[in-house]
Request: fold
Amino acid sequence: MNIRLVFLQRLTAMLMVPLIIGHLAVIFYATRKGLDAASILARTKGSLGWALFYGVFVVAAAIHGAIGVRSVASEWMPRWLRRNPRALDFLMWAFGVILALLGLRAVAAVVL
Reply:
């Protein structure tokens, strides 16, 4: 695999660790306080902070996941795909863009 992709995947992993911890902390806080979905959504509406937090999280996860899918595809897909780096790159980009769009749509639904 390209050294840039390895570096980028490691970088996104390092970025996601504190975001995952923060996300889990929010989940534990919300469940301990007995908050329901409506009250959680009421707290996140219009919040630039939550939009940035989850927006960065989504983009990092999409990049990280797309690179991982490229690695798995290079080992498990048909031979023509494994030997065609352009096809692998297209698969990676398509998967990453779809993940990012779906995730950012969810963030917008929660915050806007």
